[in-house]
Every structure is written in C-alpha cells, then in structure tokens.
C-alpha cells in the first residue's frame, strides 16, 4: 500500500473524489487548486451541523 499526502494524490490522479466534511471542503479544495487543474472532481462533500 502506498501512503501519500493530498497534494501528491490529487496531482497524480485523473479523477479526484472529495468526501470531506462540508465545512472543510472549500479550504481543502482551494489548497489543492493547482493540483486539481484539468482534473475531474467528484464532489460528495458531507453536510455536517454543529451545535
């Protein structure tokens, strides 16, 4: 099994799935903007509620 970080994984993939908590999705995806350019993004972010 290969263990890698988000930037390496997104950079080497053709299709990227986002299944992060909804409250974190924009921050995570913004940080990966360069690696996601030209990729297919399947966004299945999970809604979450606090409080």
Describe this structure in words.
- This protein has one domain.
- The chain has a two-stranded parallel sheet.
- By secondary structure, it is α+β, with helices and mostly antiparallel strands.
- The protein is built from three helices and two strands.
Structure, briefly:
This protein is an alpha+beta fold and 51 residues long.
Set down the secondary structure blueprint.
Elements: H1 6-12, E1 15-18, H2 22-31, H3 33-36, E2 40-43
Parallel strand pairs: 1-2
Features:
single chain, about 50 residues, two-stranded parallel ribbon, 3 helices, 2 strands
Low-pLDDT sequence parts: none
N-C termini distance: 38 Å
Shape: globular
Q: Over the alpha carbons, how many angstroms does the gyration radius reach?
A: 12 Å
Instruction: Supply the helix-strand structural class.
Output: alpha+beta
- Strand arrangement across the biggest beta sheet: 1-2
The major sheet is characterized as: 2 strands, parallel
Beta-strand percent range: 15-25%
Instruction: Give the proportion of residues in helices.
Output: 40-55%
The overall strand count is 2
Strand/helix succession: HEHHE
Figure out the total of helices: 3
| Average pLDDT metric | 91
Our count of domains comes out at 1
């Amino acid at each position: 099994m290969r263990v890698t970080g988000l930037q390496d994984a997104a950079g080497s993939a053709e299709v990227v799935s986002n299944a992060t908590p909804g409250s974190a999705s924009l921050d995570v995806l913004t940080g990966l903007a360069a690696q996601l350019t030209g990729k297919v993004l399947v966004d299945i972010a999970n809604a979450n509620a606090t409080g």
